[in-house]
Write a structure and sequence with these properties.
Belongs to the glycosyl hydrolase 13 family. By secondary structure, the protein is α/β, with parallel strands linked by helices. The chain is built from 16 helices and 31 strands. The chain folds into three domains: 2-137, Immunoglobulins (Immunoglobulin-like); 172-269 and 300-570, Glycosidases (TIM Barrel), CATH 3.20.20; 580-680, Golgi alpha-mannosidase II (Immunoglobulin-like, Sandwich), CATH 2.60.40.1180. Helices cover 20% and strands 21% of the residues.
Amino acid sequence: MSNCFEVTQGAPLPLGSSVQNQGVNFALYAPNASQAFVCLFDKSGHTEILKIAMNINEGGVWSIHIAPLSTGALYGFRVDGEYSPEKGMLFNEHKLLIDPYAKDLFNEFTWSERHYGQMPIGTKSVVNNAIDMPKSKVTAPVAYSNNKPQQSWANTVIYECHVKGATCRHPDIPKALQGTFLGLSHPSFIEHLKSLGVTAIELLPVHAFISEQFLTAKGLQNYWGYNSLNFFTPHKDYLVNDDINEFKQMVSKLHRANIEVILDVVYNHTAEGGNDGPILSLRGLDNLTYYRTIERQPNVYINDTGCGNTLNIDHPKTLQLVLDSLRYWVEVMGVDGFRFDLATILARSNTGFSASHTFLQAIAQDPVLNKVKLISEPWDIGPGGYQLGAFPSPWREWNDQYRDVIKRFWQSEKGIISDVAKRLHGSFDIFEHSNRGPLNSINFITSHDGFTLADLVSYEQKHNQANGENNQDGHSANYSFNCGVEGFTSDPEVMSLRLQQQKNFLLTLLLSKGVPMIAAGSEMAHSQGGNNNAYCQNNRTSWLAWKDSQRNHTLIQFIDDALKIRRGHSAFKHSVFLDDIDERFTVKWFTEQGKKMDETHWHEDTRQFLMYSLLDKQNKHALLIILNASKQPVVCQLPQSPIIAPWTLVLSSVNNASSVIQEDATVNISAQSSWVFSANLEGDDYD
């Protein structure tokens, strides 16, 4: 069979497979291997038709050029060398490996004992695993050429969603497109996004991923996707015709609607798991290059992720792999930014987290990556793992302190209004010390992880029995409340209070300084039945229902109304924190009597009421925001409007709230309610 091909030395760059000179060049980094092979497969992916030894180059890169060969060719790598698990050496020629630079994969991954290096335990496996492995597929990537929205952070409103869960039950989307990339770009879904006023969707992981074996053994799946198999390939279950270009089609259509695409990316660990995990790709190429191990114990992985392994970003080639992947998704696939799962891991070396870590420096100087949106999840379970506020500009950070304090406030916790005020105005105590501003905070109440917004006000206990872990998984500190009944109820008073509390959360979120993020389903009161860790629920627990009552839910209009107010006041776009000497913007805090708050008011243990005004002196526009988390109504004296125009009610969480302000400017503020008044010399217009 090799006589059919012309085989030459090949080039060490670029890594992976690339179409060159009527053939395909293969390049692979495996510096400690004794020999590397490229293996070609027939069109079915079942039969290995050729195994050719590659040539070693300077720097530990193996290469070979095979002609004639073109796009669509199926291949994998085999790497031979020392197999000594106690030394962290796991070379095994019998294991077919996925090209870490593969842009496309063919056929499915199947769990079997053939993937393991030792079988039985203590004996090197000589079983070929190719039958159970997806094959890498040669592609010829073309750069993304359409215009991008380039939304400023000041205008950004993020909608976090799951590719499948967002549309797989949407009745107006053709069945074949439901739950796919093309489903997200269908006019019906785009219209929904536009009706909310969001400017970016943040997609849960779309890199090729697999379910952990312990889940498949229980008949469950990894639904969220935080278990990467490959950093370049779109997850094939989200394609209609097995065409990776469908992802670019989605991006292009969303861009035309002025909606950006942000990817939730997992570069902290891979699906190869812990010491007892399978050999699928990086582990078989050079285990000690790609994974962090305990010093002087190369057989023991550092597990700062809780998933068995931790990627070794300190190694130049691992760092290159991550950066090459990021650039590919920007330059070829067209995305606008990334949210980095467990981002502290990427900036941690043996001496701990550093804001000047090589990874952060590399992105800062990269002419492609330093122009996209960068969001960190600034915590992990490793040493010094909580780093909120420590990332350098221009990074944005998920602000869990915002999330928890706002939850506690509307839970009617007392004595925290000082903390609430800090979160409402951009968390200056967290970000200002490093010359960052309020727009560095990604504010959110709920996300994919934890209770949904509807469940946050319907359950006080997690109900995760369906996950098969005896309800021991998921967070226990949810700061949730059930409004008097645990779970489903038809009691109209309880249902009314739950809706009002959801509006309270949304109004607070969307009118806080910072960048707001809404979890998909919040706008239609989606419930997961109290499951606060639905990572393995690839079913109706997680999928948005899109019933008529949900598609026309009152929360959709409420979000749109709140975002119109946000867009209409420039203070929310201001990139620096407001202070007493700001020439344009003023913030003032008031008591229930409409008087300025003093130091004693801020330290009242029983206070659950906040009223403050935001004045834009340039545009002569003021907002008055009132938040009453108390279970008792408050008779409130509105402060004098800072401009000539009177206060007008523009939004309230209370149904049928009267817009009439009594002559003496008093308003009855209902228990557990939120209100927004506006004064504008030019007249209020939020359309």
